[in-house]
Design goal:
heterodimer, A: 120 residues, mainly alpha, flat, disordered N terminus, B: 213 residues, 7 helices
Chain lengths: 120, 213
């Protein structure tokens, strides 16, 4: 199972190393999955395929799935030991992005609901 | 389990004497370090975009009696431009792969395809912006439109600067060939381009699909 010849290197995001034959395939599979996710998002948004109040959740799920496809198949971020540093940096970035977006939406929604109604 | 056996098991799982850049085998090679630094830059760019996304999410309902999202957005055009950007991300990946395999001609073919698809994306976006301004729905009309133009416009500026950098890189490949320094720049550029596509997934989902129906 363990191959002693293999050097565990840090891996750059964006490059599939040690697996030269898988790369064209990887990009093509990624493109196919991303196209499916994109078409699904546009269909879900414009039809009644999903229960109407669930559409935003469905769109967010599809967007996260597509971002995952991009990260794995285009940027080649894997779960192997040689992606650890890239994944750690990404995890920190995702944390900050989540805090900024979710925090702003939460705080402003609170502020709006506590404002006095504007006299018409 | 003692520390010694725990350490021993880790060593069996990943031979650290072979793991460059993680305490064994000397420092990581230059291209790994360069790409990692660029990856950190991209993540900081994502943090900047998150502020613009937050502003849009907060302000998208404040249209000050002006035009609303469903009246302004043409989802058919958005779909076409999304496909352009996605395909350009694919051709960019294949192009850099050809460069890594020392096929400069193939690289140039895919780089030109990438440029054409990116330019098509920008053209559709510029037409959309011009149409909105002509209808009186410019960024000055409402908080919704200010945040819309800032978010989508910043992404567009990124795409435009990516296209300029691509032309510069194609010229470098033509004049210098695929030497290691040029390959490193190409690698960083491809990271930038893929990251722009990831940001666009957020834009078309949050701005166009969640607001435009």
């Amino acid at each position: 199972m363990h191959n002693p010849e293999r050097v565990f290197d840090d891996r750059t995001p964006g490059v599939e190393e040690h697996e030269p034959t898988a790369s064209y395939l990887s990009y093509s599979v990624g493109l196919g999955l991303a196209i499916i996710a994109t078409i699904a998002s546009f269909i879900v948004a414009q039809t009644n395929l999903l229960w109407a109040p669930g559409i935003p959740v469905g769109l967010i799920v599809l967007a996260l799935a597509q971002i995952g496809v991009h990260l794995v198949f285009f940027l080649h971020l894997g779960s192997g030991p040689d992606s650890t540093n890239n994944i750690l940096a990404l995890a920190f970035g995702v944390l900050i992005v989540f805090l900024v977006i979710a925090g702003s939406v939460w705080i402003i929604a609170n502020l709006n609901s506590n404002l006095m109604p504007i006299p018409q | 389990m003692t520390i010694a056996t725990a350490l021993d098991r880790t060593l069996t799982a990943v031979p650290t004497e072979l793991a460059h850049g993680r305490g064994g085998g000397g420092p990581a090679p230059k291209r790994i370090v360069v790409a990692y630094g660029f990856w950190i830059f991209i993540l900081s760019d994502m943090v900047m975009f998150s502020a613009l996304f937050a502003a849009y999410a907060v302000l998208s309902g404040n249209n000050a009696g002006g035009p609303t999202a469903p009246e302004l957005f043409n989802l058919r055009n958005v779909f076409i431009s999304t496909m352009c950007l996605l395909l350009s991300s694919y051709t960019c990946g294949i192009g850099v792969l050809s460069a890594e395999r020392e096929q400069p001609t193939l690289f140039l073919v895919f780089a030109i395809l990438t440029f054409a698809l990116g330019a098509a994306f920008l053209f559709i976006e510029a037409t959309e912006f011009a149409g909105m301004v002509a209808k009186g729905a410019g960024p000055w009309r409402s908080a919704f439109l200010s945040s819309f133009f800032t978010l989508v416009g910043t992404h567009g500026v990124h795409v435009a600067s990516g296209l300029v950098a691509l032309v510069y890189l194609m010229a470098q490949v033509r004049t210098h060939g695929l030497r290691p320094a040029v390959l490193r720049r190409l690698l960083c550029w491809s990271l930038f381009w893929h990251a722009l596509d990831i940001v666009w997934v957020g834009v078309f989902t949050l701005v166009y699909l969640m607001g435009g129906h």
